[in-house]
Amino acid sequence: MTNPSNILPKNDRRKISLNNQTLWSELNNAQKVAASSLFHYGFELKFIRICPTENFVGLLLNGKPVTIDNEGDINTTPDIDIRG
After folding, report:
1. What is each CA distance from 34 to 8, 13, 16, 60, in whole angstroms?
2. Could you tell me which of 76, 29, 31 has the C-alpha nearest to residue 49?
């Protein structure tokens, strides 16, 4: 995956706005399969978080976050806060 955080200072990373097609192209096959199953319920792809210790994809439905890890495992109760 491309890591825009390597290019921008930490303060500017949250200003990156990628459209869904750009985000989709950054997912691996396991993440795409998992995300597709959530799209049927109305979830929307919102972000990809790339950290030294973990990488995951974030989706939202009515303000409720769900994450998908590199193996395609879906976490319906992630310990994350979504900033508006």
Report:
1. 29, 26, 24, 14
2. 31
Tokens of residue 52, six digits: 């030294």
DSSP for 44-69 reads EEEEEEE-SS-EEEEEEETTEEEEEE
Helix (H, G, I), strand (E, B) or coil at 6: helix
Q: What is the pLDDT of residues 24-74, one digit of tens each?
A: 888 999 999 999 999 999 999 999 888 888 889 999 999 999 999 999 999
DSSP code, position 25 = H
* H or E stretch at 37: helix 29-39
What pLDDT score was predicted for residue 3? 45
In sequence order, the 6+-apart residues with CB closer than 8 A to the CB of 30 are 70, 71, 72
